[in-house]
Amino acid sequence: MARTSTKARRKVRPRERWIAETLFDDLGFRMTFAVDKVIYEEQTEHQHLVLFEQPFFGKMLMLDGATQITKRDEFIYQEMMAHVPLLAHGRARDVLIVGGGDCGIAEEVLKHKSVRRLTQVEIDATVVEFAKKHFPEFTRPVFADTRFESVIDDGARYVANTARTAERSFDAIIVDSTDPQGPGKVLFGERFYADCRRCLSAGGVLVTQNGVPFFQERELVSSLSKLRRLFADASCYVAAIPTYIGGHMAMGFASDDKRLRRHSVTTIAQRYRKAGSFATRYWTPEIHVASFAQPRFIAEAIAKAGTRTRNRE
Known about the structure:
Strand content: 25-35%
Helix content: 25-40%
Shape: globular
Low-confidence stretches: none
Radius of gyration: 19 Å
């Protein structure tokens, strides 16, 4: 079926600058965005950060050439990373977010009445201060909530220290990492996953950002292979996020409670009402359950991760 070109749909005016997402350079293509205005750009201690206005997606944030968030479709990723694990668990009180400096996921987590404490560990203080200035719609309600704690630290180190001291455990850990490059690489290692497991309460759940399987199958298979050596149950669920080019995005899901990703729509709907029936734009009880049904090519990729688990503590 023929597709209508952009020029045929509307006249495109010249741009002074275009910014490319370089995440898939090794595959030989880039997604390039026209820029109305560069709002902020900096090489921080940890990564290159650029925020710009895009004519269709609005404000866009890129870190090291990878799109992190856009004003137009941020709600999809944030809702699915927050509501799926918390409502699958059903009684999460203590939650940890590793990464997530823009506070978008934190805002969604704090909508749950059951949550008594939320800790967010972000490696780059610049990202948090940047978000306070440029994404106040996320940060203001989060930092005003007494349940929220912001920690500037290496996420892997924080989790390792927490696991070693055993002074605290979490009902849900949400890993809002960049892709496995730069400072985010350690968050895809088996040592980090093992430390996360030791930090989870009985029946707790770990959720991870695992890229777009159509282009990043190896990343998903690698992560699930490690998770399946540690947890009784590990798989993924999917969401369609327009700016994460490639179709479905995968979120890794791991727990020692095999029931968590097998609840009915009725159960999830009941938990949603109990949580407060807060407004959503993507997540619904039906989407929650359906997100665990993978297209065959993703299911075949997951099968490559194997099913072997080791003895768990």
